[in-house]
Amino acid sequence: MTAASEPKPLDLVVAITGASGAIYATRLLQVLVNSGRHVHLTISPSGAEVLDHELGIRVDLAKLDPQRLLVSDSAICPVEDVPPGELVYHHFQDFRAGIASGSFPTGGMVVCPCSMGTLASIASGQSTNLIQRAADVHLKERRKLIVVPRETPLGSIQLENMKRLADAGAVILPAMPGFYHGPTAILDLVDFVVGRICDQLGVTHRLFKRWGEK
Questions:
Q1: Axis-axis angle for helices 156-167, 116-123 (nearest 10)
Q2: Domain boundaries, the chain
Q3: What class has domain 3-201?
Q4: What does the pLDDT average to over 150-170?
């Protein structure tokens, strides 16, 4: 099969919720879009508040231009030249979006960062908004669902919810950066977590030096 006839990679879904760590989400979007992937984005109201508080990115969920999230004036995550047109935004209450249905094919979904409230809702099978519904779809369709919690310490309720999701087929990928790759800046730590997410999605990257690499 020639390169021209290779099937196009399936779309990916990213949801941003109200946990600390908005930088993981914006960096993930940059990397996925730069890799040529078509990404569907949805954001909870609390996620929008965290974007503003942590990164100074104010978003109007009613009429968001998602391209704003692909560049950053933050010293942590510098501005990047990102190709336009690969990111589609869906309001968190828009159940008409394709990602609300199992008939819409995707290559996986990431909830990054994932609040404990969102994690609990997904674990209990709720579908009160598009984020929860899309996650539920990925579980029932046996597609890759990655949740990226950023919370510490964790109580028994949170741990039980994580186990329940893991038993249902989700990947629990806490925002816990490693240090064996020799990080020298905050972005190095962010890229470690983002790179591990990309590994789960099958997206090729060179975001960090892997264990055993020369």
A1: 50
A2: 3-201
A3: alpha beta
A4: 97
